[in-house]
């Protein structure tokens, strides 16, 4: 019984495959090719967008580095001015104490 069922299933598969060969799948294949072309276009667009974003990130990183440098210079300048103010106030107090 199992052998007959196996032969019947094999025959059914053979008949389905034969039908595909007789009818053809050109319309499905053309849709597949069209979809692949669309996927390739989207892929190229995505790569172009990635390159654009990488350039933007690079420019922003350079700008960030420049701003960090300016900030460090401003901190140094503020510290110098604070040190100078403290020195002047100290000298002023010394002059007041001597008089």
Task: Give a verbal description of the structure.
This protein is mainly α and 99 residues long. The protein contains 2 helices and no strands.
Please tell me what the overall shape is: rod-shaped
Largest sheet: none
Q: Indicate the proportion of strand residues.
A: under 5%
Uncertain ranges: none
Domain count: the total is 1
Termini separation comes to 125 Å
GO cellular component, one term: spindle midzone
Protein name: Rac GTPase-activating protein 1
Coiled coil: 36-77
GO molecular function, one term: GTPase activator activity
Summarize the structure.
This protein has 99 residues and is mainly α. The protein has helices at residues 2-23, 26-98. The protein contains two helices and no strands.
